[in-house]
Structures are given as C-alpha cells and as structure tokens.
C-alpha cells in the first residue's frame, strides 16, 4: 500500500476545495486542521484497513454535539 495519498476534499463549513496529503505510515489517525478559507476546524478520522489495503477517511465539522 502507498503510504502517501493525495486527495481533494470540501470543507464541511464553507465548501472550499482543499488538497490534502495523507500519511498512512503512522496507522489510524484522528486530528483537526483549520480550513484555509474560513479558518474553521475540520475533523479528520482516518482508518487503515490493512487486510484489504484500503484507507477510510471520515471528515466532519467540529460543531457537532452529542446530548
């Protein structure tokens, strides 16, 4: 599996297109990055499926709350 993956995503806040590079060599990751256009935080959750050689990336906004 290639450890460096490039992807184009949309900001969940403003819809701005962002080019990101994912580093799959560190395994599963859960982190936040600010959008370059609107400066709101974007939540990235990356899961590596080694058995099927796939990377799952879930992107959402930081303003979702659980009650």
UniProtKB/TrEMBL annotation:
Lineage top rank: taxon: Bacteria
InterPro entries according to UniProt: UCP037225 (IPR017143), zinc_ribbon_bacterial (IPR025990)
Name of this protein: CPXCG motif-containing cysteine-rich protein
């Amino acid at each position: 599996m290639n450890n460096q993956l490039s992807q184009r995503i949309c900001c969940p806040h403003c819809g701005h297109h962002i080019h990101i590079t994912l580093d799959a060599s560190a395994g599963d990751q859960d982190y936040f990055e600010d959008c370059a256009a609107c400066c709101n935080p974007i939540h990235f959750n990356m899961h590596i499926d080694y058995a099927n050689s796939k990377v799952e990336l879930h992107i959402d906004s930081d303003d979702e709350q659980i009650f």
